[in-house]
Write a structure and sequence with these properties.
Helix content: 25-40%
Largest sheet: 7 strands, mixed
Structural class: alpha/beta
Distance between the termini: 43 Å
């Protein structure tokens, strides 16, 4: 049996783990049935677009990588992207043991076989680990399993915001990321955009809650509203529930997350030598294939605009400061 990862300090970590365990698909359900259910969802084209954005990022920042580390790998939905990018080794960790079980099943049953690009990619070696990305000894525990110079990339898809309970926990995560990366390596992924979320709640909601088209956003805490939440960079709790995704049902499971402001991420990353090379709304982000973006309807594009993509390159001693309003290359 696998050992449980260290428990996290702060609000809601047990609820988050329980919620994501429950989001794993029934192991008795066939892969074909799971795919059919997914295709019938209202946000299917949005999910295709999000996957196309991630596919482009793996190709741009991890193609041919000897080794990468994936923080918050979930149910293994990116296996084909790792393989198509011809990544040779992936250390993939997640807080949810149930989702890791599904990821192992997906790998073992040929799910995400990939290899569709030139040169194939089916030879990717994957090591699944039940652990938290906020584990204080994360880099020390993983570095012996990486090449001597470190990982070519560290990836966090829709998970990095969980570190923003406090400035100390966010900075600690970025320190771990920098310690895992080789010089010139890239930290990349996608995350909920706290500024876009607050604008949506203020403009289209009542200042504290927004509910529309299968989307629920609610600021948590007595007296919280969008203006107050925007005044603090850390520790602002948000309930984010999106139909047909792993966040669905968050309101029933008391599964909250933390608002992540781009400016705070850039500032803390700079302190660890991480220089931004991509930082933009996911709704405007390039996708592979590009046709995935044109297929979105207005409601799906609205959801995409609540996230942003990021990529930071490790440049020891470099000046990593940058205004978040400054255009950044997405290549």
């Amino acid at each position: 049996p696998r050992a449980a990862p260290p428990r996290q300090a702060g609000a809601g970590w047990a609820e988050r783990e329980t919620h994501y365990d429950a989001q794993a698909n029934d192991p008795q359900q066939s892969r074909a049935a799971a795919l059919a259910k997914r295709k019938g969802g209202a946000l299917y084209k949005y999910k295709l677009f999000a996957n196309a954005v991630k596919r482009r990022m793996y190709g741009a920042y991890a193609r041919g990588a000897p080794a990468i580390v994936e923080l918050g790998c979930g149910r293994g939905g990116d296996i084909s992207k790792w393989r198509d990018a011809r990544v040779r080794r992936v250390i993939a960790l997640d807080l949810s043991s149930a989702q890791l079980d599904e990821a192992r099943r997906r790998e073992g049953q040929g799910g995400g076989r990939g290899g569709g690009g030139k040169g194939g990619g089916g030879g990717t070696q994957i090591e699944w680990r039940h652990a938290s990305m906020l584990q204080p000894d994360l880099a020390a525990s993983l570095r012996p399993r990486l090449p001597d110079d470190g990982a070519a990339a560290v990836v966090s898809q829709f998970a990095v915001h969980y570190a923003f309970e406090s400035e100390a926990s966010a900075s600690a995560l970025l320190a771990q990321v920098a310690a895992l990366l080789r010089p010139g390596g890239v930290f990349f992924g996608a995350a909920p955009d706290g500024d876009a979320i607050l604008r949506a709640i203020a403009t289209d909601g009542d200042g504290r809650t927004l509910q529309r088209d299968g989307l629920l956003l609610r600021l948590e805490g007595a007296g919280d509203d969008a203006a107050a939440a925007g005044a603090s960079e850390f520790g602002r709790l948000l309930l984010f529930s999106l139909q047909d995704t792993v966040t669905a049902g968050s309101e029933h499971d008391d599964c909250t997350e933390f608002l992540l402001h781009r400016a705070a991420l850039v500032r803390l990353a700079a302190a660890h030598g991480l220089v931004p090379v991509e930082l933009e709304s996911m709704a405007a982000s390039a996708a592979e294939p590009a046709s995935a973006a044109t297929a979105l309807d207005a409601a799906q594009r609205y959801v995409a605009a609540l996230y942003f993509t990021f990529a930071f390159r490790l440049e020891r001693g470099a000046d990593a400061s940058m205004s978040v309003s400054q255009p950044v290359s997405s290549t």
